[in-house]
Amino acid sequence: MKLLVIAPALPMPDRTSGDYRFFQLLRLLAGRFDVRLSVHAVSGQQRLFGAAAVAEYLIQTRGIGVEVLSATPLEAVQAGNYDAVLFEFYTAARGLIEEVRFRCPAAVVVVDSVDVHFSRELLKARMTNNPADLAEALDIKAEELACYRAADLVIAVTAQDQERLHSELPAVRTAIIPNLHEVPAFSSAIGRVANQLLFVGGFRFRPNVDAALYFTSEILPLIRTVIPDARLVIAGESPPPEVLQLACDMVTVPGYVPDLAACYREASVSVAPLRYGGGMKGKVGEAMAHGLPVVTTSVGAEGFGFSLGRNVLVGDTAEAFAAAVISLLTNRPLYDQIRYAGWQFIRDHYSLDAVAAPVLSIFAGVADIPAQRLPLYMRIYKSIPISIRRRLWGMRRGRSEP
Q1: Predicted pLDDT of residue 394
Q2: Handedness of CA 382, 383, 386, 388 (dihedral sign)
Q3: How far is CA 26 from CA 37, 65, 76, 183, 363, in A?
Q4: Which residues, in sequence order, are CB contacts of 379 under 8 Å at separation 6+?
Q5: What is the reported pLDDT for 400?
Q6: Is the separation of the CB atoms in 31 and 21 below 8 Å?
Q7: Which residues in the chain come in under a pLDDT of 70?
Q8: What domains sit in the chain, N to C, each tagged with a CATH number?
Q9: pLDDT score at 17
Q10: Is the CA virtual torsion 346, 347, 348, 351 positive or negative?
Q11: Chain centroid to CA 379: how far?
């Protein structure tokens, strides 16, 4: 199968969990299919992270067998003859699905939702009770659902996201591809820094900013009333000023950490106090994969299928969250049980070995999905050279003027 993948940017798997999942997905697909990647915004990445760093990500992506095109997404669609086109995020598909239908009418259009964005934004609006947040969420919902409606297959990350899609678009064809994790061998807890808590998050993602502020202002003080030497490390790229200002004698904010393995080895507990969000939280699965026990919220635990209290602890109020952290730090049998059960759960359900076969099966079946057809009037319209279209549009505007 010849597969064109169109994404907002090159995957940066050491910076965000979504990029890590995307990179591992590309790795699996390139091992079986002919995969070409075209991205919208390499120049934006270069401005943010530097040309040298972006060049390394390009080498990484090519190193897993993906052909990275220099052509823009529009040029790639116009130049190729593909069996399928995969859009990573609905935003990557803006203005391009009709072009795929016109240029490659037999190609199956697949959109990877990554998470259902409007659901996350509606949760935020409910939490803030801000009319502007609600208006933004509804705008996102309209655009996102229009994209999914135009696709032949929509990939959800969790069963909950799949249900949300079907409640809005009952006829949409969906499949589930969850997060994918490399799972190191289970290791001893010896060497961990006593009472050191770890929060990991990319801070271009606003729910992580909210979670860091919430934890330090409302939860950490409660923990320190019982465990006075409890400390927090906040690791993640692009921390904004309000997160950087949290640094003090009990909070360390190192920012971007290229390799989080040392952070996971040193911490005692991973905390993920997310109050809104969507999809499957990479920080939760990654901590567990490294044998670190996790305390999170119902939002943070969504989609995994956890047995609460067995492989993860959950607290949806500041008091409940703090009590869960304290119980892990003061009860060694509970600590050992949660950390091993969490590691085992991720290994069995979300490791690369566990997920590879279902993922490849989904894409092997893409050829059997009927591609939607572009309406006849659109095929005729798109057959007209762009220069003539502009002239006709100008004439029409001229006639409409008084």
Answers
A1: 66
A2: negative
A3: 9, 9, 18, 18, 12
A4: 102
A5: 44
A6: no
A7: 189-191, 386-387, 389-402
A8: 2-180+354-382 (3.40.50.2000), 196-350 (3.40.50.2000)
A9: 87
A10: positive
A11: 34
